[in-house]
Amino acid sequence: MKQAPTLSSAFLHPACDQLPEPLLALRKQRASTLVDMPMPTRKTENWKYSAKYLKLDDEMAISLPNEGKTGNSLAVPGYKVVFINGVMVPEASEFPDMDGIAIKRFGDLSIDEASALSLQLGSTLDPKRTQFAHLNGARFEDGLLISLKPGAVLDQPLFIIHETWGDAPGSAYPRIFVDAGANSQMTLVEEYISSGDASLLANTVTEFDLAHGANITSIRLNMEGENVQHIGATGVVQQRSSRFESHCVGFGGPLRRHDLQVRLEGEGGECKLNGVVVTQGKQHYDNHTCIDHVAAHCNSEETYRNIAADKSHAVFNGRIHIHPDAQKSNADMNNKNLLLNSGAEIDTKPELEIYADDVKCAHGATIGQLDEISLFYLVSRGIGRRQANVLLTMAFINELVEQIPVEAVRETAQMRLNEFFEQTFQEA
Domain count of the chain? Predict the structure, then answer.
């Protein structure tokens, strides 16, 4: 019998030790759990559509350099933190100066702060479903702890710009933890970009811990290049009457994978998850979401839409788990998919697992193509076929794009989507 492939030991040796001792100990412990970790195959349920796209060569295990660049100079309408290859660049960042809000890089934490954080890192994620979050835990060289005291309100969005680059193959492991105190509020924008042509891996983890009444909006924009494999995880734990809103916009690549897990642990919690994905060429994008209704009287709303062109592949796997004590839960999940070519592929798998009897739950999924009657109508009114295709396709996703609450992000997303359509559609 052929032995299943395992994660190369080359990935278990971080390059940097400039972290407080409790975080170094955590990193070592995470690495010990990865020894002989089986690599995903098509028989691995939550990787069956994506395993063939995963290419982790030993040369990619090398930590990417964090020198030689000064950070991206994007003008953002708010505060900014820049990461280059998983390491923060203070001179390129602009921090808020407000009472009740503290933003610290992992390397600047005191021993007590690092010890407390080491108990929190990974606590929001299911290790069985996000095995590569453990790889991040074994390899992170820097990170950001965002602490909001009770009642604190960040007056502008906080942009975290993650840039991955390299002249040779390698990998980066950004890590973010948001500790949102009672009744605090903030909007966090994560933008993933890249430069260079070498084969790179970005393995990212962002976690949110929401105390009662906290209100957090998370916006995730993935725009890395064709040379970057991206494996990301976002974990959320919510207490009583808290609200979490997520907007994810993703552009395909050689491998894009994002696991989003939300756990509603306090009564009255609410979450709203929106996602848009577009793929073309031979690109791949896989979204896996899971919403755990643990407490009663919680609401969740989830809407994801995928567009696949050429010979690309998009995946959506959404799971809602209603626990026995989660009576009066209200959960709704909807996934719509648009195939632009006969060679494109979209796999969708909505899941409901219900163990309470007084709940209201619904889920639905559709896969289709552009309506020829609508195309004919627009063309007959003097609109070119290419423009008609663009209008109908943009209408399919614009409802979700328009809900992004930060104008600069909406404009960036729409600009990139227009570029996608320009490349995808040809004038008939």
Answer: 2
